[in-house]
Fold this protein.
Amino acid sequence: MPRIRWHIVVFLAPAVLVYTAVMIFPLFNTLRLALYSEVDQARVFVGLQNFRTLFGDPIWSEAFWNALGNNFWFFLIHMLVQNPIGIALAAILSHPRLRFAALYRSAIFIPTILSFVIVGFAWKLILSPIWGIAPSMLDAVGLKSLFAPWLGKEEYALTTLALISVWQFVGIPMMLIYAALLSIPEEILEAGEIDGITGMAAFWKIKLPLILPSIGIISILTFVGNFNAFDLIYAAQGALAGPDFSTDILGTFMYRTFFGFQLQLGDPHMGSAIAGAMFAIILVGVCIYLFGIQTRLRRYQL
Amino acid sequence: MHKARTNPINLFAMHGALILYTIIALFPVFVILINSFKTRKAIFREPLALPDADTFSLIGYQTVMKQGDFFLYFQNSLIVTVASLFFVLLFGAMAAFALAEYRFKGNLWMGLYLALGIMIPIRIGTVAILEMMVATGLVNTLWALILVYTAQGLPLAVFILSEFMRQVSDDLKNAGRIDGLSEYTIFFRLVLPLVRPAMATVAVFNMIPIWNDLWFPLILAPAEETKTLTLGSQVFIGQFVTDWNAVLSALSMAILPVLILYVIFSRQLIRGITSGAVK
């Protein structure tokens, strides 16, 4: 019988207890609650009934697919706009002869530290037709006809919010890629230079392949972040994710279902079912990344 | 490197692109801040003008001070953030030390178990967390938030800190053991001071999401006396939508503390991110 080394237990216990009690246990408990329903004020086991309602009942399934589709669009815009801009900024910033790089870096990161509430309202005011900053600025460059109350129009609102979120978070891919670019040893770039590969060619042919793992990490961080996003939509458009649910994503949908809104009462069990669906989606995404992408990316020993 | 001439036109274009993006990044913040110091008329007449003697007004700030308890909200946010960071760092470092230092059965599994939470957002478990907080009477207390943020921060903290703890020299620890120091003393006196830079990285990483979170304050602690600054400003602005002075001032008051913290910690933050802590 080996003696128990109590100090190991003491060192591990607080973290494991808090983590298990407040994170892991509620996670599984939420998945369990998704299998129950409230009948006559009592909790009754109903099996997969909630999921059948979520995917089968037209009212629920329409809302769910709407939120899921919107969420994918939200994610796609981040991948297509946020990450390329972040990479481009990082590539410029890492140029060795550039002055004031630290200053630019700190300034561009500022939106990332602001809360969604600030960001949501600030943009709401700026884009507001009442205040008129956006229309008068477009007017100054002769594009006033392009202006529309973007946040109020069904066809533009979600894209506008996604772009606001991109504006806020561009600092994160920028910083991570910047770090990755700095870690490329100079000898490699000098070797390329001797072979005549400089400037843009050096970026595409030498640096980009070397930072692919970092781009992979950024993609999965973006994915997980986007699929549990809530705050920005709630701050800018409210829990109803207007106009007419056009900006509804899974986070706001779950919040509304769980807490209720206007006439509908909150339903923790349906809320749990939606949380279960979100969990599955995030799990699939993380697995695709871990087994499909990360293992196939070539890592170069630097 | 790049002794090879950099075309001055290229350099010019690079500065141009960066300046343009910096303006895009800072413009909204700038507009909010300057307009919060103007009269209502001036806000609408010339939104982009700086406040001058004629248009300067603190009416918005007066409304905010009178109507909202921003000092209390600020204090709540501060307590929650500092306490959560303290527990994340203390518990995280202890667990990281156990995983990095000792070989024991289940070490690997324990590490994997604790790492699960890096990728899975804690928000998924909200329904059960709320139920638990109601059952334990912690709802509408700051403890509910501190517990949730501690649990949320631990996985990444353990992961980063154990990487760093593995680099601490064994000779030092063994010397301590020969001198008869207990394992606890070795941890608190010898190892902790050496991983201080990594602790700072973990702290700045956790600080911003905790300070800015809206979801858990909204669900777990929406009572007036436990509102955080983020939730408080959200509710305040929702009530005063039409009072532009008040809204702009409230926004500015929410921006300023974060901005000041950022100016103080930005070096640390940027060094933390670029040191490759997230590899």
Notes: The radius of gyration of chain B is 24 Å. The mean pLDDT of chain B is 88.
